[in-house]
Amino acid sequence: MAKVKHARYGDRTSSESDKDGKSTRKFTGVWDVHLDSNDPDPISGFEVLRIPGVPIPGYSVYSPRPGFVVPFTICRSATPNPVQGSRRYWQVACTFEMIGSKEQKEQPQSADPFSLAPTVEPFVETTDHVMWYDYDGNEIVDVFGDLYAEPVRAPITLKGVTVNRYVSSYDEHTLGNWLNATNDDDWRGQPEDAWMIRSVKGQEVEFGTYTIGQLTFEILSHPVEFKVSMGGAAPKKHRTGWLAVRAARSNTFLDTEGDRVPFRREKAGSPVSMTWLDMDGHPSEEMLFHAFRTRPQKDFDEIA
User: Is the confidence at residue 181, as pLDDT, over 70?
Assistant: First the structure.
């Protein structure tokens, strides 16, 4: 049986920064592969990479020495080369990349990987969003108090985090239950519905003697907040960026008899026009918005 051993003389650690200034830690190492006399000679490096114990790109977690691993580091490349033309002795140069900026220390490969703290990497991005109020709290309406035919859109900054964590297992149902969900309670200093999971990916990894799952979440926080009515309740401030918001406006209203009738600004016979409605469907001078939760809620404390 082939013997695979991590040759520590080849270890190297480095850091690289991308164009956005994000730093990534990388580890390189060399694994010696010695074939026994009764092992068949491999005819290619591809066969060497299939020998048990050789790190597998996209699967193996970095193990700097026997019995220990560095969490959230994943093999990115493995390059086999025969030593001095030998088919019995190979060296495999491997590169590992640390996911997230959080410093990770060596852990015994027998340690419980599910007890390890997730990595959290912050980022920001910009998007356009319909604005009902400006940043001074003023209503964005015309001189008649009506909404503009073309909604006002403005650039806003979204704060986000990329979270990596280990799980015992996962499937498409696990990923689907998290995708597009919003937080059901305060999380990372932001209130209910402020955060939304834009993407969640899973991959199987080799953590020492374990084969486990690694989930990567990309989560965004939306800053837009104003008074809305939800589920027929009295209006109150709520994060609305990930909610469906509709203005309480109509060209009909409920009269004192409870009948739905056309709204006219002037006397009977004048053109029908739009009006704001209060919670009871009566004409109002005040803006009112109804918000609807069109995404599922989840307990984000289960993520990090």
Answer: yes
